[in-house]
Amino acid sequence: MKPTHTTGAKSAILLIYTGGTIGMKEDPSIQALRPFNFSQILEEVPELGKFAYRIDSYTFDPLIDSSDVEPSMWLALTELIEERYDDYDGFVVLHGTDTMGYSASALSFMIEGLTKPVIFTGSQLPIGTPRTDGKENLISAVEIAAAKDSEGHAIVPEVCIYFDNILMRGNRATKINSDHFRAFRSPNFPPLAEAGISIRYNEALIRKPVSWGVRPIFHKNLDTRVSILKMHPGITPQIVHTILCGEDTRAVIIETYGAGNAPSKEWFLSIVKEASGMGKILLNVTQCMAGSVNMDIYATGKCLKEAGVTNGYDSTTESALGKLFHLMGLCSSNSEVKSRLECDLRGEISK
C-alpha cells in the first residue's frame, strides 16, 4: 500500500485505485480479467507521460469491488487524502461505477473546506480493452485534478465525478445507465466542466474555499443507522412500521412520489407520526430522476410536513445518505441534525 512514483515534474497528482472495472486487464494465460499493477500505469496509458506532472499511484489492498463498498472504505480514503494532502496538488480516485455516487457524496461531506480537487472516475470497459472508455476518463480526470488558475489555485477544489466528457459535483451525480459510456448524470445541477477539444469550466458554479491557506477539516465520525423506504403502490403497514420505527434506525430516507407525496391513508400517516414522536429523523426525497420535493403543494405532502418529515429538496438519495451519515456522526441531537439537513452544506441541494 505504498505510493509508487511514475513520472517526475512540477505538479503532483496522487492516483488512488480502490478497485473496479477501470483497473482490469485480460490475462492471456487464463483468459480472464485481472487487476494490473498501477505502478506501470504509463505502460497502459502512455498519454499520461505527456503531461508535465508527477503522477504517483496508490492501490488499496485488498481491492474493493464497487458492490462491496462500505463506510470503512470511505474512512480509509479520507485518511489517505488527509495524510498525503500537503504532498499533492490533486487526487484522482479510480472507483467501481455501481457505488461511485455514494462514495463521492460521502467524501464531499467528510472533507470540509477543500482547496484541492478530488476527482472520482472509472469506466464501463476495462482499460486494457480496445474500445475502453477508461483512458479518456482517466486522462481528463488527471488534467482536471492538476488544473490551476493564474494565481496557482485549483480550478475545481471540490469532490467531483468525471465521466464521459462531463465533470459533475460528486454529491449531485447519480448512475443512470449500466450499459452505455454515459453512465452518470447530474439531473438537478449543471456540469462543472465539459471536455471537448478543450476543457471548458463553468467557473461561476464551482465552489471555492473561504480561505485558500487553511487546511480542510477531515470528518471521520459517521453514524450509519439509516434506512431507506421506497414508496410503492401496495406497500404494507408492516413494512412501513418495521422500517420507520425500527429500534436500530436513527434516520429514514423516504423516497416519495413526484414532488414529495406519499399515501394519504390514515394508517400510513399514523406510522409516520409514531416514528416522528419517537424522535426519528425522517427525510423526504423524490423518486424522480430530476426535480425537487415541495411539501407545500399537495395535501399529502403537507401531511408529511405536519407529521415532522424534513424536506430533502432536490437531493439525490446517494447524497442524502452521505449527509445523514456525516451529520449524525457530528451531532448527538436529532433536532440539530434535522435543522442542518435543510442547509446547503456542500452544494448538494438547491433551495
Describe this structure in words.
26% of the residues lie in helices and 22% in strands. The protein is α/β, with parallel strands linked by helices and 351 residues long. The protein has two domains: 4-218, Rossmann fold, CATH 3.40.50; 226-341, Rossmann fold (3-Layer(aba) Sandwich), CATH 3.40.50.40. The strands form five sheets. Strands 1-5-2-6-8-9-10-13-14 form a nine-stranded mixed sheet, with helices on both faces. Strands 16-17-18-19 form a four-stranded parallel sheet, with helices on both faces. It is built from nine helices and 19 strands.
What layout of secondary structure does this protein have?
Layout: E1 4-7, E2 11-17, E3 24-27, E4 32-35, H1 41-44, E5 53-59, H2 71-84, E6 90-94, H3 100-110, E7 111-112, E8 118-121, H4 134-146, E9 159-163, E10 166-169, E11 174-175, E12 184-185, E13 193-195, E14 199-201, E15 217-218, E16 226-230, H5 237-244, E17 251-256, H6 266-277, E18 281-286, H7 299-306, E19 310-311, H8 317-330, H9 334-341
Parallel strand pairs: 2-5, 2-6, 6-8, 8-9, 16-17, 17-18, 18-19
Antiparallel strand pairs: 1-5, 3-4, 7-15, 9-10, 10-13, 11-12, 13-14
